[in-house]
Amino acid sequence: MTYVDRSPAGRIRTALTGINAAWSATLNPARRASGSHAMTSLVNPPLPIPASVLDDRAKAHDVLAHWSLTVMRGRRLHRVGAAGVPALCGFLWIHAAWLADYPKALADLESSAAALGQIAADNAPHRFKVGNCPGTTNDLPCPGAVKATVRADDDLLPSVLTCSGTPVHSWPAGEWRILERRLHMDEAAARRLALAIRV
Fold first, then answer.
1. What's the distance, CA 120 to chain centroid?
2. Which has more confidence, 151 or 129?
């Protein structure tokens, strides 16, 4: 059983952990939707990272800097050290009990953690169980389960179906339509796979 500190200081530490964990994941480049075409013109190309993501990152940094400055003034400290997000999170973590007297700090930090966490989740590959493996091992049905890993078109790694029982049972996205008929899947998995196949 894991103890979760629900006190204001504990919630501040949880928010800081979330901000720090999601910070680097928010830097993934913008992803094209499946089936979209690459740009053919260099006139006003899009930013590699969406402006809305840059705005959320800037807001999170501003929130951390503001509350770090509040701690420094309130506790009469002379300097924080580095001003990067991990350093600010670490500084505020140490002073979370003092900062807990400021309900606005908790609200600001939880809001930043939620925004960055959502961006990080949107950038992560989607994984879900598809069904039983249609492959064979030594002329016997494979006992493994097939899981889909669906990635954006511009991800360095391709989308793939993999078997939990036999590592050689693996299918790239281009073979999913053919394989779909051989998989024994429930209706929800069939819908998710159908959406993923629309490339």
1. 3
2. 129
